[in-house]
Amino acid sequence: MVRLSKIIEELELIAPSEAKCSWDNVGLLVGDESQRISRVFVCLDITSENVKSAVDFGADLIISHHPLIFEPLKNITESTVTGSIVRTLVKHNISAFCMHTNFDVADGGMNDLLAAKLGLENVRKFTPDECMGECGEVLDGIGRVGVLERPMPLSDFLLHIKSVLGSKALKYAGNLNETVQTVALCSGSGGTEMYAAYHSGADVYVTADLKHDHGRIAEEIGLNIIDAGHFETENIICDFLSEFFLHRFPQLEVVTSFAKPYFKSI
Questions:
Q1: Which end of the chain is more exposed for a tag (fewer CB within 10 A), N or C?
Q2: What is the pLDDT of residue 171?
Q3: How many domains in the chain?
Q4: What is the DSSP letter of 123?
């Protein structure tokens, strides 16, 4: 067994909580740092399904990317989804820890993992002068820019993304025949970072949760954009955490969520 405080200490070295965006809620959301941990369940989201799997596994700790609690809770009851999940965690003495935007921005974190998954080389962060919106507003700059080993048509790059991320379908705006090599990306909901991708000189921008206006603006500024799915661009944290525990805490048993993307395609 390992004290939860020791696990948190090691996770904080990877993604310090203070690096989170101001609106975010990360760290230990349910539990006690003095708890002794022997089994860990890792996932993208702390859902009812994942909590049931964690309970069945006998987990003491569940680690997720997305926070279970975003807004202050006015009550913790079975009448709300979050309240019901928190009650189940407490009932089964399962602590819950989250690494969200602090992991997104971390060196070697979510966006570097996604860049590696896409096979990008010479990966870098957005520069301060690139992190400017349409009206001069400063962007968070969560994301990366890199290059493919070989240029390819956008149509082939779409197939490449489907293959490496396991996406069933992709949404895109752009020219399928255009050659792309410089790729900007932002895991999860990265529509607000689109101008950073544009200013970086990228041929294509990969993110998720793109809306109508993102497509309209992308066409206006001549940027190819791809919505690769929020789940697909971030569920890669599970493999990362499994490797983390294998190397840092090999005495612990770890199980990864088998959850599938919430949205299906027909």
A1: C
A2: 94
A3: 2
A4: E
If you count them, how many residues does the chain have? 266
Same domain as 149, residue 48: no
Domain range for 94: 2-103
CATH number of the domain to which 171 belongs:
3.40.1390.30
Distance CA 205, CA 195 (A): 10
Residue 1 is given by DSSP the state -
Q: Identify the domain boundary among 103, 126, 153.
A: 103
Residues 152 and 56 in one domain: no
Distance CA 100, CA 89 (A): 20
pLDDT of residue 41: 98
pLDDT value for 78:
92
Token readout for 89 is: 């965690």
Strand residues in the chain grouped as ranges (E): 2-3, 27-30, 36-37, 39-43, 61-64, 95-98, 120-125, 144-153, 171-173, 179-189, 204-208, 224-227, 253-256
Which residue stretches of the chain have pLDDT < 50? none
